[in-house]
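Good morning C.,

I know you're traveling, so I'll keep this short. The sequence:
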Amino acid sequence: MVNVSQACWFVVLPDRRLPPGLPALLRERATGAVLYPSGRPWLLGSWTADEMAMVSAGGRLLAVVGTSSTTDAGLAVRLKSVGTVADLEGALRGVHGSFHVAASLDGHGYVRGSAFGARRLYRTEVAGVTVCADRAPTLAWLTGREPDIAQLAARLAAPHLPHPLADAAMWTGVETVPPGEALHLGPDGSCRTTAWWQPPPPELPLAEGALRLREALREAVVLRVRPGQVLGADLSGGMDSTSLCFLAAEAGASLVTSTLHWDTPGNQDHHYAAYAAKYLPGIDPLVFPSAELPACFTGLDERRDPGQEPAAALRDLARQQHTGREMRARGAVLRLSGLGGDHTVVPPASYVHALLRRGPRTALRHAAGFKARSRWPLGATARMLLLGAAPYASWLSTAAARLREPMDVAGPQTWGARPVLPVWASEETEGQLAALLLSAAEQARPLADDFGRHAWIHQMRDAGRIAGLFRDAGASMDLPVDSPFCDDSVMNVCLVVRPEEAGGPWSYKPLLAAAMDGLVPPRLLARTTKDHCGPDWYHGLKAHRRQLADWADTSHLVASGIADENELRRGLLNPGLHRGGGAPELENTLGTEAWLRDLAAHPVPAHLTNSPPQEEEPVDTPAS
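The tokens, ready to paste straight into the viewer:
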């Protein structure tokens, strides 16, 4: 059975007649409840006092669930300025963090997640009644939904899926409320979505944007610092995690840090991490030589509760568990991760197309720089710069027809990376993913009219989605993981900065470097390299060849018609033969196989039927 009690979770129910047993079933696992004035349950789930700010006034209820800067008293003040649902976002302006918002105003419901997907929202129907939750598995558990094979098949594509496929739920009948949109629940049972967030205009120069980013990151980190508590933090040696460590130290946190010392020749991460530690007085630094950690892909045979969706981070899971246990043993109650920094502070190089209209000289200079650095072909560079890209719908349709073509490794991208299926994907998988892309081409709109801006927002949302998976995985290991770079306030600030100043071909993360100037030592901000752990990756695959062979022989992907048995076995046992992009496609495949195996070990029972709604007896759970 899917475990819905391992971390903060909630379900929003309408103030209506409900299917028999639905609230009672939730109350068996819920530790918290908030009621409507009618006595029916509004919110049922599990959360701590730190994860819920709640206020009620007459027939009006307002809750913020997650990590936020507001309090019950603060919400009470904000609620006074709310007349209708349309006033909610204005009243919540200035609240920062990573959270959901739920409100019921005289029978009108409003629920939303975060703008960039770190906090997601899902919906389904039970006997004509709309129910929503922060977790798709919760709704699948409630209703006995089956996995959506087409969506699972799509997860084999590398490097990642385009908008809107990347946001889809893994269950039939369960829909994702797109990030940046809110669900409106009418008193008559109607349901609709509206956009509550719009991309801000990119108008700030680097200096002003850096000041705002520093303040946004400072607020995000301070929000996670608790007096008297030990805070864990990754100190990888990269600019993102290092910046968070210095901000946490500035906030007075008692820090225990985790650094991996890779054996890869030429790897510089541990040198930069050791240098940073010298300037972080009072920290408790933990250094883990990679040879003393579990090999990559350790734990393939360990079954866990299936998460929201397949995760490509299977290779590092055992290592994260090991380092997390050590941090926990030193007293850490939360772990800060630099996840999302790469996605957030650096825009894709495709910004040069829109820049050509505003600053042609700068655009040509930047395009020439990217061409030299990334070896873009002259013709492709000129086409992107001068002609732009086909409409998004055409781009999706073209991607549907090119799923078997090798990944584009040279040349500028426009709307994003084109999805490519591995050779072991079945013909059925190719047809299913093509159908999803063609359907999206008919219905979806890009995240911004400019393809460079669309690509930046999409990579931010990709980071937000992964941050949510990391948070859930950390909660299951008793050390929650937070990713401050994925807070809405931080990502919004980055989008406000002119992309040609936030990025560029000649400097590494200029926006973050400017934001941390004066706090982080200059040598760390001047770093221009990014290390990898390729030898460890191959060593892990070799060390677990027997388990991989067993997975090939008993593959759930093959049983589901998603993968070809022979090609999958060849791919798992001979990773060195992969074409370009082999690591992402193999990790996506292993993550999806693991998810299916986890689901088989923890099946979702069909608790509810489509019987007509009945009146539930009011519950006597406390109001908050």
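Safe travels,
E.
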